[in-house]
Every structure is written in structure tokens, then in C-alpha cells.
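Risk register update: the risk of archive-format incompatibility is retired. Evidence:
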Amino acid sequence: MKHIIPFLICALSIINCQFTTANDTIRILCIGNSFSWDAVEQELAPLCDAGKQPIIIGNLYYGGCSLEQHYTFLLKDTASYSFRYIKDGIRTPHEGYSLRQALLLDQWNYISLQQASHDSGIQSSYEPYLGALIDSVRKYQPQAQLCWMQTWSYSQDAKHPAFPRYQKSQQIMDDSIQSATHALLSRHPELMLIPCGEAIKIARSTKLGDTLCRDGYHLSYEYGRYTASCVWYELLTGKNCRCNPYKNDNMTRQQKRLTQKAAHQALQQAKKY
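Archived output:
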């Protein structure tokens, strides 16, 4: 019976899904840093391929980049980003890119913003930069759905220099990120939430424990990145990630099941925001 129930869930999900064609390619642009690298560059394309969903991924990477820094780069048209472009599963990096260049490169369907991890739970760090970025992005891509990628807390034993801001407490950091997320969505209800932080939190509460990060803050290659990408996959496609057959070669079936369940649950809980 325990094997039949997941099958029935996936069967019902397939019935309710809107299947896509080659003309329905999803185009996403992440204005981020190493956390967006974790979330979309390794596992999202394979998940979409397994789910028969064409996707083009653009990730603007600048290490540790905060909302304030992104906005400064945009104002000065600074070409300081590494732009990672993924099409047909092939990742092509371009150095010396500006935010304006990336915005004009394609007609993006989704554009995500995020805060640097060290400021993610500090509400005062968000404005006026988030609002200004939203207004600026809208001018270049008025048709795009703007998104907010919620980042995750650090591991309990993290050595990150900013962890003392949260009393070196994973729980305090989780609560601070959650409060900041509620506040920003109240100010900017047009943003679609991508609850990667919530998914990591849920996964940590399972048998996986506090093993989702490889260095205390960046996601593990085995199943940390996979968890975040499952959130993106289900949100973008509308397809239950628990029905996706893909897993990387370094994951066990149990890890796949637990991480997919955490991602799905996070999206269900995000409806409360």
C-alpha cells in the first residue's frame, strides 16, 4: 500500500498538469549570487528535461551580492557579473556582464531577486533597494513575472563571519528570514515566492538532518542543490516534483524521496504568505 499511494498521487498530478510543447520554453533570469548558483545551475535543467519541460536559465552571479550592490551595479551599468547561460542543458559562462545586458538578452518569463545570505534576515537591509530594483527591472521586462527567491539559514556549525548576527543560531536565522519574507511580500505582493529556504528547513527536519550544506552555507552537491531546484521545478511547471523521475547519481532513492517531499511541502506552506 505504501508504494501505491505515491503512484496515485503522481497519476492524479499528471491528469491535472498542463503538458507543454517545444514552443512553451520557460525562460528564467536570476539576479543573484552563489545561492542562485546552488539553486538553478546544477539540477534544474535535468529536472526539467525529465519532466519534458524546455527551459533556458540565465544566472547573474557576483559572489555575496546584496540587493544594495545589485542596484549600485545597475545604476552604474557595471559589467562585473559572471553570466551563466544554460540552454539544452549546456552551461555557457560569460564574464564581464552587466545587469542591463542580461535583462535585454531575452524576453524572460521569470526574473528572480534575492538578498545576500548574510542580510537575508535583516529587514532593514532590503529597502529602498528592492523597490528600486523592481521598478528598474519592470522598465526592461514589463511582461516578466518577478519572483523572490527565499534563501536558507546556515548549518548549526557554520563558520560564516555573519552568523553571529543571528547569535550563531540556525533557528533564529530561520525565524528572521521568515519574518523578512512576510514583510517584503506585504510590501511587494506582486512578487512570486520561491521558498527554497523553507524547503531546506523542512528537509533538515527529516532523517537527512543538518546535512544539506557542504560548507555551512552553500548547498551540498548531492541533495542540497537538488532540493532547491525541485522547488523551482514545481513552481515553474505546475507539476508535482515528487513525480519527477530524475535524481543525480550521488543520491539514494530515500534522499530523492525526502527532498522532493520537502520541496513540495514548502510550496504548500508558501500559500500562507
